[in-house]
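Chapter summary example.
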Amino acid sequence: MRKKINFTKVSLTALPLPPTGQRETYHDLKTNGLQIRITSSGVKTFSVFRWVKGSRKPERMTLGRFPDISVEQARSMATEVNATIAKGDNPAEAMRKFRDEPTLGDLFLDYLERHAKVHKKSWMEDQKQFNRYMTKFASRTLSSFQPSDFQRLHHRVGEEHGVYAANRLLSLLRGMFNRAKDWGLWNKDNPTQGIKKFKEKSRDRFLQSDELPKFFQALQNENNETMRDYFLISLLTGARRANVLSMRWAEISFERSEWRIEETKSGEPQTIPLTPEVINVLQERKKLADSVFVFPGKGESGHMIEPKSGWKRIINHAGLKDVRIHDLRRTQGSWQAATGSSLPIIGKALGHKSTFATSIYTKLDLDPVRKSIETANQAMLKNANQPSTPPRKKILPFVGTRKKK
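The structure predicted for these 405 residues follows.
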């Protein structure tokens, strides 16, 4: 008969030892499949024992030893295993793979599929980071790495690519090994845990009044219409880079002049008022649209992913230094502030989330937000010697002059 008990630290500590050479198994009352096996020597090991699709017999997936792993951790891990089984996958196969001397590449692929793609909207950034900095280490087994290896890597990336890139890579590696340990796939200390991140400076760069004319002139001279429109909409909406890249036509209401983003970085939906300048760009793009995305791409996502080459070209043509794509968002907020908008209105326009701002935002409608964005955009366009009044096709010299494909 199966022995079922409520797993607690007290109950598991008090379990009696089985006779010499034997092993006893107890099942948790609260979590499906979770069990603990105790040997006559007192070793207590958590595992999940479940039927898995495609297997000829129940699979046992070892989670780790008690009390190194707490009851709460074991239940959380078992829940993840059960979720994987519910999707039709076999987590036991992944665990057997790791017992057979896994490589860093194996760990990353497992991390990507089991964690990043499930829990992180920015999982493609993880993939790009690994491909950029770690491919030459991908074939090395995990046991071959020492903390000093990752320390040197962090230092080198910091020198060659900057402290922000180095710190993002360190966070990725740290997360990979943390998840591997949680899953019982790695039983050593996290090799990145003693490495300190580089000190990062808070960035306050935005396009100044003398830089806007140069930026708009560079946009006007840009031959790639998709790049041109992407950066213009990024500036005039202040939306996050990822949201503009993945913008869908279904999210745009031309009747209400609004863009509804169902889920932003903060996890909340956001409605962005679209000014006449932005509507004009979108209407011109819509005439030739053949994708659900406003900025389609050829990759797996279906939309444009990496606009860095276009950005570098435009910034070089404008003769600007130290300007990043995210600075367009900061430019919108800065010009809203410069034209008299309050901080709650700016926060609402940019989709910022804070305890203080949230309580105020519930009392705001889109009218003052729209007014704030329109005022800021008109100020930027006026500063850059760009017309800011209808007819729309004359708002920017390069809008409405697209070549038919």
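To summarize the output: Confidence is low (pLDDT under 50) at residues 355-363, 389-395, 397-405.
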